[in-house]
Amino acid sequence: MADASTSQGRSPSERLRVLAVASGGGHWLQLLRVTEGLQDHDLAFATVDPSYAHDVPGCRLHVISDATRWNRLLLLKLLFEVAWIVLRERPRVVISTGAAPGLLALFCGRLAGARTIWVDSIANVEEMSLSGRQARRFAHLWLSQWPEVAAAAGARFEGSVL
Q1: Under a CB-based contact definition with an 8 Å cutoff, are residues 98 and 131 in contact?
Q2: CA 20 – CA 47 distance, rounded (Å)
Q3: What structural domains and CATH numbers belong to the chain?
Q4: How much is the mean pLDDT over the chain?
Q5: Which DSSP string corresponds to 147-158?
Q6: How would you class 154 by CB atoms within 10 Å of its CB: exposed for 0-12, middle for 13-18, buried for 19 or more?
Q7: 13: pLDDT confidence band, cut at 50, 70 and 90?
Q8: 104: pLDDT confidence band, cut at 50, 70 and 90?
Q9: What is the pTM of this model?
Q10: CB atoms within 10 A of CB 80
Q11: Sheet strand arrangement including 141-144
C-alpha cells in the first residue's frame, strides 16, 4: 500500500476518505486486492488482526473485535467499535468484503451518509453469504464475484478479485 498521507496524482480536494473493513483470512486478502486501485485516496482499514498492519503501511488501521452472529454480546461490542470508527474517520465511502464487521460497517456508514460497497466473498460459489444477503439493504453497490450468484441474487457482477 502506498502512503495515504501523500497526494499521489490527486489534489487533496479530489481524494476520497475510504474506510475498508473485513474480518480476517480470505476476507482480508480480498479486501487488499479490492483496494489496490485506491492508493491515491485517503484509506483507513478496520480488521480483526493487528498483525495485518504490515499489509497496509502508511494507512490507518483500526483493530476491532472478531465477532460472529453466534456471540451476541461480542457482536454488540463490535457494533459500537465500528460506529466509533465511522464517526472518527468520517468516510465518504465504506467498502467491505465481509463478514460481520463489514456488514456493521456498511450499516454505520450508510447512517453516516457514506456511499457503501459490498463485495461478497469469492468463496460463496453457490449463493450470497448470509452477511452478503443482509448487506443488500445497506449497500449502494452490491457485488458478487460469481456471475451466476449475482444473477440469482440480483447483485451486480463486475469480475472477481482473486
Answers
A1: yes
A2: 9
A3: 17-157 (3.40.50.2000)
A4: 93
A5: HHHHHHHT-EE-
A6: exposed
A7: confident
A8: very high
A9: 0.91
A10: 13
A11: 60-63, 42-47, 17-22, 93-98, 115-119, 141-144, 156-157
Q: Tell me which amino acid residue 115 is.
A: R
Q: What nine digits make up the cell of 35?
A: 483496494
Strand spans (E) along 76-151: 93-98, 115-119, 141-144
Quote the percentage of the chain above a pLDDT of 70. Answer: 94
Count Cβ neighbours within 10 Å for each residue of 5-39 and write b for 16 or more, e otherwise.
eeeeeeeeeebebbbbbbbeebbbbbbbebbeebb
Whether the predicted pLDDT of 144 surpasses 70: yes
Is there a cis peptide before residue 153, judged by omega within 30 degrees of 0?
no
